[in-house]
Design goal:
Three copies of one chain form a homotrimer. Chain A starts with a helix and ends with a helix. By secondary structure, chain A is mostly helical. Chain A is elongated and about 60 Å long. Chain A has helices at about 1-30, 40-70, 70-95, 100-125.
């Protein structure tokens, strides 16, 4: 599972970087905590981080379920696509929220595949396969 | 732990469905990203998803702790109550936020029981039981 | 890993307490769900909980990665610093958001150390060390 663990750590660090960018946008656009609105570009950075939080919470357990019931290397490979998809999502959302779909799909689909795969794997295991 | 893994995957998929409903409400009520306010019903869908995110983050580790120190089948059974409770919470919150308490309790209590059980189990293990 | 499990359960319960405080502030300052703005002090309680959610999602996997590749006792000790740091963060943020840095650092750095340690540990394992 070391490959899966590395992808997990990278996904966490990516999320932390997204958080730093929110902090940077706070300074740049003069949005003082606890406010999370008031500037359009700041709100994009904030939503990138929040949406990544939502997906990360589903992605990480999915990664381990898929790795456990199928194959850790495949799980890690699908996880790499998630990492790249999230970078594309972040960059395109900040430029223009209307163009966030491609990056969203490229990170959302890997998460769903991992979770669905884990669910199927666990069900097959119970069924005695 | 296959039963616990299945409940985890179902809880993640349920959360993803809540996210789709937020996306649907964005379209229906004309709330364009990055905005998360501006329409009362949209805000309910959004808060259902956000509150589920908050609880899910506590629920999943609790599920595994309880399953590890006590019994995976019991953990999965308590987890099923959480899943049903969240559906009730989501449906009642969207109709009327003031009536969200029953569904909240039915999903919050299972999460707390799992975490508290895991804590007690780990402490007993350390104490040599 | 029982020490790590105990720290995990405590971090989850701490987060749940932060959630209760948000609920209490809802009542005290008359902020009805689904609203999350409208009173400065309420918004501080809310941001404390949200920021803790963001960090918790990174902290818990980091805790297990570090515990797995290095030492569970060290992971738990670093996790204790996180717990104390979050209490300081919560207390200082509610008093004055501008003074949240010390508590933030004292909980953020432990999380980063755990994740970075886990990443290094997994990479060394793959490299055959």
């Amino acid at each position: 599972m070391a490959y899966v663990d590395i992808v997990t750590a990278l996904a966490l660090l990516q999320f932390i970087v997204f958080g730093f960018r929110v902090g940077g946008a706070r300074g740049k656009y003069g949005i003082k905590a606890p406010a999370t609105t008031g500037n359009k570009v700041f709100e994009r950075y904030f939503r990138v981080q929040q949406n990544t939080l939502e997906l990360l919470v589903a992605f990480i357990p999915g990664l381990y379920l898929f790795g456990h019931y199928f194959n850790p290397l495949w799980a890690a490979a699908i996880g790499l696509i998630y990492l790249i998809g999230r970078e594309i999502y972040a960059a395109s959302y900040v430029k223009d929220p209307a163009k966030r779909s491609a990056g969203f799909g490229l990170s959302f689909l890997p998460a769903v595949i991992l979770i669905a795969g884990g669910l199927i794997g666990a069900a097959l295991r119970l069924a005695g396969h």
